[in-house]
Amino acid sequence: MAVITEASLRAMHKSGIPNPFLVEKGDKITPAAADFLKGRGIQVKQVDQNQQPSTNQAAEAVREIPLGVSNRHIHLSQADVEKLFGAGHQLTPMRDLSQPGQFACQETVTIVGPKGSIHGVRVLGPARGATQVEISRTDGFAVGVHAPVRMSGDIEGTPGMVLVTAKGTVVMDKGVIVAKSHVHMSPADAEQYQVKDGDSLILATQSDRPIIYPDVIVRVHPQFALDFHVDTDEGNAANLKTGDRVKVIGKNGQFYSG
User: Fold this and answer.
1) pLDDT tens digits, residue range 137-175?
2) Pick from 8, 195, 165: which is nearest to 85 by CA?
3) Final residue in a domain of this structure, among 146, 179, 212
4) Secondary element (H or E) of residue 55
5) pTM for this predicted structure
6) Residue at 54 is within a domain
7) Which family does it belong to (predicted)?
8) Which one of 19, 30, 219, 248 is separated from 93 by 20 to 30 angstroms, measured CA to CA?
9) Is residue 1 over pLDDT 60?
10) Domain residues for 219?
């Protein structure tokens, strides 16, 4: 017989609490532990001592994905890099990002909209084919730019803004978005999670402000590393930080059984 306490559940929290949470006959769950599980939408299921969950149920119960909270940032075309920082300028790596080959740059710019500006917005490298600014909805209210929720690269019909540095100015006619939440996966990750590029996942946070994301787009590429990306508004709403983990509880609009 085991006694399941809130403290023991909290100790499991970082590695992930299975849903359903399986208990054997005779196990005791304290009231505080029961409230802890209920508050996170985790079901309690009693199993026979010799009974094991099915392979699919076990796999679905423990699947997790690391999370990265992405602050406002800019991707620049090489032409715009040179307009803002000088002819022939190359972006200067400051630190690597979660995705291989991607890096935060030493360079920053000021973004200017109809109502205001935000200074020190980080440029991410390497340079891309088209300039794109990714802000949160809150940032949009501050500068007066009402950016739509889009996947990265989908910038047709989006608003523009002005980018300013000490050396130059770029007037964008389009390219400002609020990034739709998405998961990066390698082909091996996609095979493990049984999804393909363009599928969607249902993800659940494991924080003290639990939130379910019902339509997280899967992006698959050989150079991608497993990571779930949200912006600062989404991260703050669920009390999340980079390095936290979320649970996969369904895909393509269907919750996993159990």
Assistant:
1) 999 999 999 999 999 999 999 999 999 999 999 999 999
2) 165
3) 179
4) helix 55-62
5) 0.75
6) no
7) Belongs to the PduL family.
8) 219
9) no
10) 181-255
